[in-house]
Amino acid sequence: MKRITGIFLVSLLCFSGCGDSGGGTSAVTGEAVPVAPWGITDTTTPTYEWTQVPGATRYQLLVEDTILAAKIEEWYTAEQGECASGDGLCSVTPDVTVMGATWKVLACAGEECGLWSDELQFSFVVYDPTPPRFTNNGDDTVTDNTTRLMWSKNANIYERDIWRDAVTNCERLTLAGHQDWRLPSIQELRSLVVRQTSIYPYISLPVGHPFTNVQDGLYWSSTRHPADHEQYDVPMLWYGSFVRSPYTEWQKCQWCVRDDPFCIVNLQLFDYLVQG
Fold first, then answer.
1. Staple partner for 47: which of 3, 93, 142, 263, CB 3.0–4.6 Å?
2. 247 vs 178, more confident
3. DSSP 170-233
4. Residue 130 CB burial class (10 angstroms; 0-12, 13-18, ≥19)
5. What residues contact 188, with CB distance under 8 A and at least 6 apart?
């Protein structure tokens, strides 16, 4: 019998066109997926966002600085995290100044807890002068100056395809002399999107972005679902919400990304630059 694997999908519906872990497992709560902040932030008091875990009644947020000292170690109820807002995310904004840190989340149902989420890293850096968000490299690639990731300028370079072919397509891509392309993670896709409020479009890329062929549809990503490692996570960014599809054979959009080995985020270096 053919096995069907659950997949999360990402949607950019405002456009035209197409860690560490600890403790035991839990039958009630799963593992949250941290979403933001990640990479370089523009604030020292960021909003922490993670995916809602069904059945979870409280969450512990742990934020550690570069020497692993706890900057934030707080519990939040699902209500305090606004987890029932309908967008599939929980979010809190502690009034604690953090220049650079690693953070993760633990989801619990009462006294029963799941596993710690994977970790994300971020840093606050002051640039003078402030560089543009994106650099059009002139070779069909775009560098995100915030996350230091390089994206294909064409936001659906292979058109629509099934998930396993989307993985292969990016891995086999040769673009601008680079052969280390891959499907992006849930956090990397989310990092491209800026939210708006009650004015349509509710979600969009930053104003003046240089990308082409951005699709009004669903995008594959590579992040594994924490509750079932046979599944894959992809955010659907319509009202900022997430949706999972059980069908890997659906043909969806694909956007390739690569790491820039000369621009890796170094939290200790950023702390040195910021703090002097």
1. 93
2. 178
3. HHH--BTTB---BPPPHHHHHHT-EE--SSSSSEEPPTT---B---SSEE---EEPTT-TTSEE
4. exposed
5. 147, 149, 221, 257
The whole-model pTM stands at: 0.56
Domains of the chain: 34-126+267-275 (2.60.40.10)
Side-chain half-sphere of 16: how many Cα atoms within 13 Å?
1
8-state DSSP, 117: P
Beta carbons of 258 and 175 less than 8 angstroms apart:
no
> Token match 């790491």: residue?
259
CB 59 within 8 A of CB 75: yes
The alpha-helical segments, DSSP class H, found in 30-178 are 163-172
∠ CA 253-91-47, rounded to 5°: 95
Task: Please tell me the distance from the alpha carbon of residue 48 to that of residue 105, in angstroms, as a whole number.
Answer: 10
Q: Does position 259 have pLDDT exceeding 60, yes or no?
A: yes
With 0-12 CB in 10 A as exposed, 13-18 as middle and 19+ as buried, what is 208? exposed
Which residue's structure tokens are 């966002």?
A: 49
